[in-house]
């Protein structure tokens, strides 16, 4: 008995190793994984990596270009841009994970209900999804934020509550397909409740596309937060955010190019990394591309 369990665990571990090797065999996917890993590492260890306090004002070193003392230069208040960029990674990671977590949770629940029960329940939920999709997301977010205090928590909640529609449609499509499979019929015949069928039978088999959608959504959430902060209705100074760093760079573009270039590159590389990782996961989980 113990030997069988050990062999089963060993086989499962080897499958994970083979899957990881297959996933990393694509150079673009590996690049995305490295970028995401570096972002997570930077966000966790930002206090140790940052050479200065990101909010410390130094009037003797205002708008200094990149140098040995300040690798990415200083801003209009003499604050070190590298330190602010590193701490800004924390904001981006937090916004991306929390906002996408909210969107994925809401979309998964509504999509599962619509796909499993069908009929008028499906029609009601999907018409609500269609109504939500009629509004441009960025303008809908701006309209909601206008009535709320601009803070990182409000930004995360609003982005999450306005970005669940795509997940709901994806989960609904998966449930419509999976609920007709034999293993669902067997579970229903055995007396399993609707909740048991949904969460124990169907949802685990639909987790792959949800994971891909969530990975791609993180990049979009980071980009949205940066846009809102750039417009002044997102994360508020002095808290460092890549978006509000770009705002200051816009005001000093002619005399301090580094204020715009480095935060812009950080946003570009981060969003590109999540998109590459998401595309790699999509190819990895796509059975049509298995050989």
Written account of the structure:
The protein is an all-alpha fold. The chain has a domain at 32-49 and 83-230 and 263-289: MetI-like (MetI-like fold, Orthogonal Bundle). It is 72% helix and 0% strand. The relative contact order is 0.14. Residues 1-12 have low confidence and may be disordered.
Which labels suit this protein?
MetI-like fold, mainly alpha, 291 residues, elongated
Give the full name of the CATH homologous superfamily of the domain at 32-49 and 83-230 and 263-289: MetI-like
Radius of gyration: 23 Å
Helix content: over 70%
| Coarse shape | elongated
The pLDDT mean sits at 84
Number of separate strands: 0
Number of helices: 13
CATH class type of the domain at 32-49 and 83-230 and 263-289: Mainly Alpha
Topology summary:
Layout: H1 2-24, H2 27-44, H3 46-49, H4 81-117, H5 119-133, H6 137-145, H7 152-161, H8 165-178, H9 182-189, H10 194-202, H11 207-230, H12 242-251, H13 258-285
Structure summarized in a few sentences:
The chain is mainly alpha-helical and 291 residues long. It is 72% helix and 0% strand.
């Amino acid at each position: 008995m113990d030997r069988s369990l050990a062999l089963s665990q060993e086989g499962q571990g080897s499958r994970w190793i083979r899957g990881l090797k297959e996933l990393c065999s694509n150079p673009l996917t590996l690049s995305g994984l490295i970028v995401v890993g570096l972002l997570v590492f930077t966000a966790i260890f930002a206090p140790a990596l940052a050479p200065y306090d990101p909010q410390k004002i130094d009037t003797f070193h205002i708008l200094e270009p990149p140098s040995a003392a300040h690798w990415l230069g200083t801003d209009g208040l003499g604050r070190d841009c590298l330190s602010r960029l590193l701490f800004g990674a924390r904001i981006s990671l937090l916004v991306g994970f929390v906002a996408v977590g909210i969107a994925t949770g809401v979309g998964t629940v509504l999509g599962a209900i619509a796909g499993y029960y069908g009929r008028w329940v499906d029609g009601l939920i999907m018409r609500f999804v269609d109504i939500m999709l009629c509004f441009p997301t960025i303008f809908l977010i701006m309209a909601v934020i206008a009535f709320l205090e601009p803070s990182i928590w409000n930004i995360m909640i609003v982005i999450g509550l306005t970005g669940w529609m795509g997940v709901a449609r994806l989960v609904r499509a998966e449930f419509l397909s999976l609920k007709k499979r034999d293993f669902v019929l067997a579970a229903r015949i055995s007396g399993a409740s609707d909740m048991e069928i949904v969460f124990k039978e169907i949802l685990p088999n639909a987790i792959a596309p949800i994971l891909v959608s969530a990975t791609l959504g993180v990049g979009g959430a980071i980009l949205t937060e940066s846009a809102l902060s750039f417009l002044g209705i997102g994360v508020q100074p002095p808290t460092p955010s890549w978006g509000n760093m770009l705002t200051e760079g816009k005001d000093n573009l002619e005399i301090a190019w580094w204020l715009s270039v480095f935060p812009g590159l950080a946003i570009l590389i981060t969003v590109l990394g999540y998109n590459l990782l998401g595309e790699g996961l999509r190819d990895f989980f796509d059975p049509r591309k298995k050989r």
